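Please review this one:
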Amino acid sequence: MSARPEGLSAYIAVTAAYWAFMLTDGALRMLVLLHFHTLGFSPVQLAWLFLLYEVAGIVTNLSAGWIAARFGLTSTLFAGLSIQVLALLALAALDPGWALWPSVAYVMAVQGASGVAKDLSKMSAKSAVKTLAPTGRGGLFRWVAVLTGSKNAVKGVGFLTGAGLLATLGFVQSVLAMAAVLALILVALALKMPTGLPRGRKGAKVSDILSKDRDVNWLSAARLFLFGARDVWFVVGIPIYFYAVLSDGSEDGNRAAFFLIGSFMAVWTILYGGVQGAAPRLLEAATRPERDLVREARRWAGWLAVIPALLAALVFLSPGPSPWLTVALVAGLLAFGAVFAVNSSLHSYLILAFTSSERVTMDVGFYYMANAAGRLLGTMLSGLTYQIGGLPLCLGSAALLVLLSRVGAGRLVGHRMPAPA
């Protein structure tokens, strides 16, 4: 692997900032979900809290690709960190005496700003890989997998951190502490940011945002339904189901439930990140023709659909919540996380393999726009399906969405990849 000291230093700085951001992002999600659930918000109202977060991601990813192409990746990274600090400070200013719907509207607006911040930071980190990663013997796949896997492991720690902070410091102090840490990181980067990230191009056109590449478009569709399938149970359904099973409604019961739910979400996300990081080895990417990985994307999506379908049937046929059912759900969802991670890692590699260096920020932005649209779809369906049909409908919807993701993956060709020798 050729040495690129300046570029590598910049990549390490971007990755470290991205880790710090994702730690606060995971913690904030748990803080908001559990705090407002204890205030009496219904599953649908809880889903509303995250809707603008996902809508903002759709808009941000479309525009961020052009902004980075025009002004450089450093500008989008700094903007993402700055907006997240301001969003955290605004959330700490929420007045608990406000009526329900003004509170919902305020938190939605703050979460929307946080969604903008997250996708600016994500696009900066993911686009940097295309420029800096070695291309030989699966190098691009390895670098993508390490970045994505480590990010999700850090976000998993964030889920546990958020639950722990809520149980010990309370909501406002937890949010202020996270804002302070992220502000310190932002200042450190502003004072000493390594060189090496791509600079902006004056010729970048807004009209170039939408991709005209068949593979990029079909992969984006597959990504949309894949993340919808995760969030349809992950955002509201499973946390609220576990809260109902684990808490007796007392303060001590709530505190114990917070830790257990946060622990499950953390373990699931850390496992997901670990498997993502190991995906190149699991798929033997270094010794296989790159076009084989396109076929693997179809195959793994088919396997993934089986798991939520079986879990939905199990919950539907059971007489009610019980310890064995909780254990089965935990085991089944961890298995879902492992198979989901391979799917996600393949997608993250393929988008960079399908695009060119000149269009990388545009195509990555378009792809993560579809990712955000999938999270939006899953978030809306999570509260709605849980309120209508409980956990069985959440999990059944996940199975259907994975099958739709399989359809998108089935249309991939990989025309930019070299043909097998």
About this structure: Confidence is low (pLDDT under 50) at residues 1-6. The chain is about 80% helix and 0% strand. The CA atoms of residues 223 and 371 lie 6 Å apart. The first helix runs from residue 5 to 38.
